[in-house]
Write a structure and sequence with these properties.
This protein is mainly α and 408 residues long. Helix content is 60%, strand content 2%.
């Protein structure tokens, strides 16, 4: 909203200084400051409200050290993240940008699913919360909407790095050639020299005109990614500060990708795909990172509040949509390897237990407990040490991911 106000003041009234709002970097800086202030200052008020409403965590007995002390800690703290993200976004972004619209919708959609799940757990006294099938239906529904918009909306275009390289005249401060923008299902494969893959090519065997049916491949891939990443974030939210900290690091790395991919000069210099209008997501990402860091003020050990599914499902959904929008979804196994490992540990543990029980009559386990962070708790590591080491791993993964801009 402020963006349009200052645009009017700059272009119509020509008031000095108001043009600064045209810069993504300036609005991103404002967004992270504002979201930090909201999450830290008003976060305490939200926590007190949740405590007064007796929105406390019900802890299942898992035999973990310090577990019983967490009982009664306010949950649904994901509301802090959502509020602290959306207020700066509504104030500072171009609200008609298709990527911003998708991200706002994702935040509200996944936040609602998580809120319903937490509500059932707390107020209906049902520890299982929202049935898994309904969560999946919600995730699939979001995937269909996001995939359809990205595929069919005419505002979503790309310029492949191989098409029409541009030149920048520094003396005249002008771009010599306007790139050709086109609808495409092309994406990026990390670590490879010829690192672009068109999903439509997967249907080339069907014969002529296969490009018209690319949505049959693209939309299911979007559904899978959103479901997998949101569930991974949900599983990672098991000890104080783990999900919020690792997510902030991953999202910050995605912010670098959105900024360079949405900048005509930088994308040409780095020889990467240029995605028009995607740079606006940098402002959203800045607000999101600020909200996550501010939330950590209260969620770090010992936590004063838990994010609940309200926060974890929202975080996963946003990360997935960001990666897909900036054509970096194939980098997620690296960038979000912690989510992947948490997901995989549960799948492997359950599968192996069922297999050994069927084969030998007694179920056996690979990990002491899953998800993976509980395995290390069972080994005797303090949860703050586990979280810190997971953060370090997340930083290394983010650096490796950023390096892929040139390492291919």
């Amino acid at each position: 909203m402020l963006y349009y106000l200052f645009e009017y003041l700059d272009k119509t009234l020509d008031i000095p200084g108001t043009g600064v709002f045209q810069y993504i970097t300036f609005r991103s800086a404002l967004a992270i400051i504002l979201s930090l202030m909201i999450s830290t200052i008003y976060g305490k008020k939200i926590i007190n409200f949740l405590r007064n409403q007796q929105v406390g965590e019900t802890v299942r007995e898992l035999g973990l050290e310090g577990q019983t002390q967490k009982a009664g800690t306010p949950t649904m703290g994901g509301l802090i993240i959502i509020i602290a993200t959306l207020i700066p976004v509504l104030l500072l972004t171009k609200l008609n940008n298709i990527y911003i619209i998708l991200l706002i919708m994702t935040t509200l959609w996944m936040g609602t699913i998580g809120f319903i799940d937490d509500y059932i757990k707390i107020f209906k006294k049902d520890k299982q919360g929202l049935k898994g099938i309904f969560k999946v239906i919600g995730q699939v529904g979001l995937g269909i909407i996001v995939g359809s918009v990205l595929y069919f909306n005419p505002s979503v275009t790309v310029r492949e790095k191989s098409n029409n390289p541009i030149t920048f005249n520094q003396s005249e401060n002008t771009i010599k050639q306007t790139p050709i923008e086109e609808k495409s299902t092309v994406t990026t494969i990390p670590f490879m020299k010829n690192n672009e893959l068109d999903y439509a090519e997967l249907l080339a065997w069907t014969g002529e005109g296969y490009q018209n049916w690319a949505w049959l491949v693209f939309i299911p891939i979007v559904i899978f990614i959103i479901t997998a990443v949101s569930n991974g974030a949900n599983l990672t939210d098991g000890i104080d500060g783990l999900a919020a900290g690792t997510s902030a690091i991953s999202v910050l790395a995605l912010g670098i990708f959105t900024f360079v991919s949405g900048n005509l000069i930088l994308s040409s210099y780095l020889n990467i795909m240029y995605i028009p209008n995607s740079g606006e997501m940098t402002v959203f990402i800045s607000a999101f990172v600020g909200a996550l860091i501010g939330f950590l003020w209260y969620n770090s050990y010992p936590a004063s509040v838990f994010m609940g599914d309200t926060g974890s499902l929202t975080i996963g959904g946003i990360i997935a949509v960001l990666a897909i929008s900036v054509r970096k979804e194939m980098l997620l196994p690296v960038l979000c390897a912690i989510f992947f490992a948490e997901n995989l540990s549960v799948i492997v543990q359950v599968s192996y237990f069922k297999y050994t029980k069927k084969r030998y009559g007694e179920g056996k386990r690979i990990f002491l407990m899953s998800p993976l962070h509980h395995h290390y708790q069972k080994k005797g590591y303090h949860e703050s040490k586990i979280v810190t080491r997971f953060w370090i791993v997340a930083i290394l993964l983010a650096i490796v991911s950023i390096v892929t801009l040139k390492l291919r």
